[in-house]
Amino acid sequence: MGTLLVKNIHTLVTMDGDRREIRNGAMFLRDHVIDQVGTTAELPDVADRVLDLGDRHIVLPGFVNTHHHFYQTLTRVIPAAQNCSLFHWLEALYGVWGNLTPQAIATSAQLAAAELILSGCTTASDHLYVFPNGSRLDDEIEAIEATGLRFHASRGSMSIGKSKGGLPPDEFVEASEAAILADSQRLIETYHDNRRHAMLRITLAPCSPFSVSPDLLRESAALARSHPGVRLHTHLAENHADVTYSREMFKMTPGEFAASVGWLGDDVWHAHCVKLDDDAIAEFGRTGTGVAHCPCSNMRLASGMAPIRKMLAHNVPVGLGVDGSASNDGSNLLNEARQAMLMARLREENAAAMTARQALELATIGGARVLGRDDIGAIAPGMAADFISFNLDQLALAGAHHDPVAGVVFCQVNQVDHSFIHGRHVVENGQFLPLELPHLIERHNQVARSLVDGA
Ligand code: ZN
């Protein structure tokens, strides 16, 4: 790959320890790693390739998405699930998801990745927990490689169907927890890369307390902890009904339940946590247990407003997640940062409850911390070469020159102009380079039609 100089950056937002914002900034990259950061005048002026941004772009570290279900791009705005809360929404969709195929999983993963990357995301975690018709986690892992996205693939699972007191219909759960664990082990051994700047890691992610057994959660934790860098992820305390289920089934709050199965620690992150109580927030902070905050999905399903200010005050690691596209219904991470800022203000009825820069922190270093990484989420020597740029001349930022960095969050900016992941140019002047988008969209829509018509 060689060396790359990016120069004449209007404002370079580093998100490093000092949160520097460098006027007329520049970066010197060697292969897939950032080598030097400073002003254009301070850095070398020659490289194998030079990208001159003409003093018109803001550059940020690439965003990190900490919760998604890629396959759900195929089931956006299904009429029967448009106006439901969590459990009824799931019950309206399980049947359609039962028609997924390996091809459907691969195609939807590529579509979601393209959408994420265009909205500034350079690293994403995905949570796949349904495996009908011979589908495997391998299907999305292989598909994502072509998109250039840095990927944390989560081996989800469901094993407790309706007849055993769970929520999913019996025909959609996997029959054997031993087989789930064996497949988890196979995936770790085949794909997990714990080296610095890794492009692919495996996470173990039984779907939720209402769809797997406590035993599977315990055994998954033991398996993950016997392999360095393998993290744990699930859904927790998403809404009022989720808390009621926990109290009735386990006689515990969601926080007590997580502790009882060993699911607290700095190698665990939970999605949503809208209804996490004060004791659990303190415990999450003490143990370094992370949270994937998904404000759009929480509003869409009327789950509630997560107490993010309180979590941050207790030093809980918090990142952002767009969640699956059946409950958002888009994969726009920049929009998620904007909604996180607005929701925090609304929840606290305090216009200073979250600033634009704090929302950008959640999207970058916050997400990196949740995924257990100190090699992404900031622009500094030794970090992976994952960065994005926004052109200040665009319509949405007209008049935002007083503070263009805050403008990226406050204004309705939709897409990046440039994105580099692992040193690879994946978006150039707004064009997604890795795949032909019109073909991908056409293929995706064919799959979506057959999925729903076949349900
Ligand atoms: Zn989810």
Characterize the structure shown.
By secondary structure, this protein is an alpha/beta fold. The protein folds into 2 domains: 3-62 and 375-429, Urease, subunit C, domain 1; 63-370, TIM Barrel, CATH 3.20.20. Helix content is 35%, strand content 21%. The protein is built from 14 helices and 17 strands. It has helices spanning 86-97, 102-118, 137-145, 177-191, 214-225, 240-250, 254-260, 278-287, 295-300, 308-313, 333-348, 356-370, 404-410, 437-453; strands spanning 3-13, 21-30, 33-39, 49-52, 57-61, 63-65, 121-128, 150-157, 200-206, 231-236, 268-272, 290-293, 318-320, 387-391, 418-421, 424-428, 431-432. Strands 1, 2, 3, 4, 5, 14, 15, 16 and 17 form a 9-stranded mixed sheet that branches. Strands 6-7-8-9-10-11-12-13 form an 8-stranded parallel sheet. A hairpin with a 2-residue loop joins strand 16 and strand 17. Residues 67, 69, 235, 271, 323-324 line the site of zinc ion (ZN).
